[in-house]
Amino acid sequence: MNLNQARASLNTILLIAGALITGPALAEQAKSQNTETLYLQQCAACHGPDRLGGMGPALLPENLGRLKKAEAEQVIREGRPATQMAGYKTILNDQQIAALTDFIYQPPSHELKWGEAEIRSSREVSHPQGSLPDEPVFEADLMNLFLVVEIGDHHVTLLDGDKMEPIHRFPSRFALHGGPKYSPDGRYVYFGSRDGWITKYDIYNLKVMAEVRAGINMRNIAVSADGNYVLAANYLPHSMVLFDAANLEMLDFIPVENDAGDSSRVSAVYAAPPRSSFIAALKDIPEAWEITVENREAKVRRMTTDTLLDDFFFDPGYQHLIGAARDGKHGVVIDLDTGNTTAELPLPGMPHLGSGITWEYEGRRVMATPHFRAGAISIIDMDTWEVIKTLKTEGPGFFMRSHENSRYAWADVFFGPNADKVHIIDKQTLEIVKTLQPEPGKVAAHVEFDRHGEKLLLSIWDNEGAIIVYDADTLEEEKRIPMNKPSGKYNVWNKINYEEGTSH
Ligand code: DHE
């Protein structure tokens, strides 16, 4: 059913119910609590009668958290370019648009359920594991491919990392977020969307293999080190969901609760390869979980933490979890064997530990993290857990990146008036040695190196944006490839080898 057919059939239903309203009467009704009818008539065909999403994204307060109300109103009025979302300014008047905007930011009147039955019935397998040829349909170094997520029009570009040329561009689910996760051999990739969709994609055949919706509002996904399982972490509902990585069949549904029955959102989940486990931190309950899979079921080991944890990071041996406290004022180091907190880190600016990186400095391992609320990068000795240097930056940052073979680490200044700048840090002097401003007035953010650490890609985070290729040594720009709000970039080799300068 296409969009118009879907709208037409909904209108017919509402007509039969005597609920189809037009013109000024519609405005009156919208004002007086009948916005739900208006929603059903105008929006439900794409966004679902219960606002859980369909062809369009879910329209619930949790899912809209990052969109300002005024922007939502603008989208309803004008539409969203390059998407199915048409403008409604000729169909609805200002009051109706305002009423609809208010409506979608209100919690629904009934509790939304996304449990085992809903997850199972959402699954679609278009190409079962083993049904597609094993030969790639293109020629390139399969270990030096990049995936670039373009959030402007919800697409992904596959890029040849030797030639630095796009190979293929394909549509993604709405609002992919977090790093896509590769299978250990780099052939398959799993994408997670904020609306809870997991997509398995065969890079060799350039085809979507399977999709399943794990939750209503999802945080991120992790793939086990052996490539056999995918674990999804949700905000809504309070759950984690285990899948067989082959065809995304659901194996286990894990309500996220403590012994007293209080439930929690999940801050994030990551694979911990040397431990053959997953580690998750809970956002509303002071616990971190280690999850192993036995007989295709999840087994949870709980660790009580001294504080609520946001995003986190590991030391290279996965002995310690380094977590950001939710109060935004400090970090904690938790020994994953004992579950005890072994150190506290003075990180007052809400560290973004998920984008921390590590390197060797004067014979010891250090890690560096930007901060969401301070123009600073903290560099921490991973033996003593002391902050050995705080670099002042031109504003709060989001992402950091480097590569074992590169002398430099790159850090953006995502927030504030200097968001168009990027700092380059010398990893041996711990000084900012250069600040670039590649496209004045446009956010420059998120870097990823190629497998050799010789070139890197930087995003110009704009609908009329680009990725810029730099020489990692001379720091000279080599070329620009136009893209639609490119966000993260993910190199196959760096990811599957857990390269020290990239995110995991
Ligand atoms: Fe992200 C990764 C949390 C907002 C772009 N972000 C992550 C991860 C977490 C996280 C836990 C790691 C998941 C993984 O890779 O498996 N992000 C959060 C937040 O809590 C925050 C601040 C608020 C929120 O809305 O959720 C947030 N993130 C954003 C954005 O606004 C960004 C800039 C644009 C967007 O797409 O929403 C954004 N986040 C990203 C990107 C990654 C990411 C590109 C992957 C980075 C990587 O290199 O791996």
Notes on the protein architecture:
Its EC number is 1.7.99.1. GO terms for molecular function: electron transfer activity; heme binding; hydroxylamine reductase activity; metal ion binding. Residues 1-27 form the signal peptide. By secondary structure, the chain is mainly beta. The chain has a domain at 3-104: Cytochrome Bc1 Complex, Chain D, domain 2. Helix content is 13%, strand content 38%. It contains eight helices and 33 strands. Strands 1-8-7-6-5 form a five-stranded antiparallel β-sheet. Strands 4-3-2-33 form a four-stranded antiparallel β-sheet. Helix 3 packs across helix 6 (94-104). The two termini are 39 Å apart. Residues 1-21 have low confidence and may be disordered.
- Summarize the biggest pleated sheet: 5 strands, antiparallel
CATH second-level architecture of the domain at 3-104: Orthogonal Bundle
Rg computed from alpha carbons, rounded to a whole number of angstroms: 23 Å
User: How many beta-strand segments?
Assistant: 33
What are the segments in which pLDDT stays under 50 over at least 5 consecutive residues?
1-21
CATH class of the domain at 3-104: Mainly Alpha
- Annotation field: number of helices: 8
Bound molecules: heme D
* Quaternary class: single chain
Distance between the termini: 39 Å
Bin the strand percentage.
35-45%
GO molecular function: electron transfer activity; heme binding; hydroxylamine reductase activity; metal ion binding
Signal peptide: 1-27
InterPro entries: Cyt_c-like_dom, Cyt_c-like_dom_sf, Cyt_cd1_C_sf, Haem_d1_sf, Host-pathogen_enzymatic-act
Domain Cytochrome c: 30-108
